[in-house]
Each structure stands twice: as structure tokens, then as C-alpha cells.
3-beta hydroxysteroid dehydrogenase (Amycolatopsis orientalis), 296 residues
Amino acid sequence: MHVFVTGATGWIGSAVVDELLDAGHEVTGLARSDTSAAALERKGARVRRGDLDDLDGLRTGAEAAEAVIHLANKHDWADPAESDRAERSAVQTFADTLTGTGRAFVLAAGLSTLGKGRPATESDLSPAVGPDSHRGGAENLALEYAEKGMRVISARFAPSVHGIGDHGFLASLVAAAREHGVSGYIGDGTTAWAAVHRTDAARLVRLGLEGAPTGSLLHVVAEEAVTTKEIAEAVGRALGIPVVSVAPEKAAEHFGFVGRFFATDMSASSARTRELLKWTAYGPTLVEDIEAGAYS
């Protein structure tokens, strides 16, 4: 299968490209820079130069492929409205292009808006609807096309997709620990995150592309709930620094932008996903990765 991948050289996307190529698929990756283009070419992937604002380029890339995996996001924490706008525009472009083709469209989604005092399940619908909502309401927008001749699959990623080289939420928490000389958790530390190793996440995306039915909500989750205190304690052990509780009103000051996510329960089950795709996680746990020095 020839797959067009956005975010192809990102943290998750680069692992997905490797997984697809190893499984015998052809890949064209979206690349913004010469460095990204060269990295894809070294792997044996094709390159389409452009970015999320190049809607004509996205359309052409989708037209030339047999499937699309959309993993790119601006992640502009200083201007989240711009990230949401770009995400919605990209998803609308892909939907318009793929309608009636029967081709697969896999998009990245998150779990941050699903918390209801319990681990989120695949039956929980995202409350983000409309262009002014989280991620521009892209998941719900895409699902509107599930019965319009496009095989829509939403891959909801755990807040921690961990491993050596991770520069996401957990890396920001470690940076805050280094800066303050203590590893913090918020309040009593019972808030929990789902987690998955990067290689396990990539394999699940590939399996979803190959076999998930239209309208599938896949939870890219290996561990249902790792408490924030457990995360902080593992960081403390890895860096050899004390572990402390940070008052909720001090979270933004101590952790920066990631503080609001660290204070949010983003636990989730992947039971239905595992059953549907016969997927098993083999990578190290989040705590194992931290203690092994992945973030040191």
C-alpha cells in the first residue's frame, strides 16, 4: 500500500514510517526542511515538500496515495488557536479529497478532553465539536465522513508516548525537575496518565491502517494509568533529586505549559483496541524507560 504520512519525521511519525516500510508498504512523507527530506530518503521513503498550510500539497499527496496517515500538528502552545485552525483545515482537505474513494484516513487524536473521573474507553465520544474547540474538533469532523466512502480511523494517543529521544510532555517535566532541583507532582499525585512506548504505538497505527473498520476509535495505550506521583518518583530516582508535592496553584509556575496537562487525568483503557487488532505491547513501561535513563 502506498501511504502518505504527515509528521513523517516527528517523534511518532518517524517510528510509524519505519514500521510501514518494514511491513512492505511504500511511504511518501511530508517534509518541511532539507534535513527532514534527507532523513526520509535515507530510509527509502519518497518525499513531498510542504507543511500543514500547503493545502494544495496535502491534496496532491492524498490523491497520489492509497491511504493517508495524518500525524502532523503545529503544537504551538503560545497560539493554540492557530494549531487548532491548521489541524481542522488539513483534516477538511483530506476528507474532501478522499470522500468516495474507499481509502483509509488515519488521524492522530488525543485523550485530554475525554476525562470523566474514570479511564476513558473507546466508546467515549470527543466533546470537541466545531472549529473553535480542542484540535479544531478534527476527530468529529473526520468521523462525519465515515459513511461517505472514506475509511476513517482515529488514533487516540496516550499523553506519554515515551522512549529515548522523546521531546514531549515528559521531557518538559524532566526539564522542570532539572531547573528546580526537585521532581514534582501536583497535589496528592493521584492524577494519572496513560502511556505507551513509541515502537508499540507505531505498530498499532500500522495495524489500524491495515485492518480497522471505518469509524474506529483506537486507543494507543499500553498502560492505563500511571500516577503523576509514580512518574515524579521515577524522575527523582533517575536524576538523583528529591521528590516533592507542588500545590495546584503553583503548577503553572513550576512546570510551565505542561502543568495544566500534568494536573489533568488522562487515563484510558485500550481493551477494545487490543481485541480488535490483536495488538500486544512489548516495549518497556513508562517508569522502566525513565529509570533506564531515557530522559537523563
Summary: The CA atoms of residues 181 and 208 lie 42 Å apart.
